[in-house]
Write a structure and sequence with these properties.
Elements: E1 6-7, E2 12-16, H1 25-38, H2 45-49, H3 56-84, H4 97-106, E3 110-114, H5 119-129, E4 137-138, H6 152-160, E5 169-173, H7 176-185, E6 189-192, H8 199-205, E7 209-211, H9 214-220, E8 229-230
Parallel strand pairs: 2-3, 2-5, 3-4, 5-6, 6-7
Antiparallel strand pairs: 1-8
């Protein structure tokens, strides 16, 4: 009835971490730049930034095709790990990141963090966000063979909660790759603009709504389709 609030079944929130909750995209782009350059390949940083959000298992081929992947893929990923490690101490949560996690849980939603980062990086992010008591589960690169834009990571995130692939869930991300993965997994995607992609690109990929920061999404949470209640 109009004016009454009807309780909806709690949904599942699958949140990306790198670039969505933690301000890390430019650090990753710089680490990839240094990794490629150390191997004799100079790739413009802007091109690398456009690929952040895509998993490292796919990024090298996206930069230079199958030839570059076959020639330098494993070495580039190994060098990237070495280059990004010293930068982790410079990372900070994006505005309102932890508040978003708290708001999601307070509204009765299940919460899982879907990261394709290495296990030690994910541990650092969990500590940075003080999120171990908020997230029920989280993923790392060890959990899947194909990362975003493949949907595997999102499906694995649901499996970590013991949920089926078609469980009602939403994704929060920052890149077109998050949105594409969400679409393939059958989940709506809400996006923060910290990935540096244009609104037109994100909407064309299928983003439901766009917000500047996690804090802005938190402020609007009760008006979204996964608020937990609707009028």
């Amino acid at each position: 009835m109009s004016g009454h609030r009807v309780r909806m079944a709690p949904r599942i929130a699958v949140l990306d971490v790198d670039g969505t909750l933690v301000d890390s995209n430019y650090h990753h782009a710089l680490a990839w730049y240094r990794a490629f350059r150390s191997l004799g390949e100079t790739v413009p940083v802007w091109r690398l930034h456009r690929l952040i959000g895509m998993g490292g298992d796919q990024l090298v081929a996206a930069v230079g095709g199958d030839e570059l992947e076959e020639r330098l893929g494993d070495a580039a990923r190994e060098r990237w790990e070495e280059e990004v490690q010293p930068l982790l101490g410079e990372l900070a949560p994006l505005p309102g990141a932890r508040d978003l996690l708290v708001a999601v849980r307070e509204r009765g939603h299940r919460l899982v963090l879907a990261s394709s980062g290495k296990a030690d990086q994910v541990d650092h992010y969990l500590d940075l966000l003080d999120a171990r008591d908020l997230a029920e589960a989280w993923t790392t690169s060890d959990d899947v063979e194909a990362s975003k834009p493949a949907p595997d990571l999102l499906r694995t995130a649901l499996a970590k909660l013991g949920e089926p692939e078609d469980a009602p869930a939403v994704v929060v991300g920052d890149s077109v790759y998050d949105v594409e993965a969400a679409k393939r997994a059958g989940m709506p995607a809400y996006v923060v603009r910290s990935g540096g992609f244009g609104d037109d690109e994100l909407r064309a990929a299928g983003a439901v709504e766009l917000y500047d920061t996690p804090a802005d999404l938190t402020a609007a949470l009760d008006s979204t389709r996964w608020a937990g209640e609707q009028r």
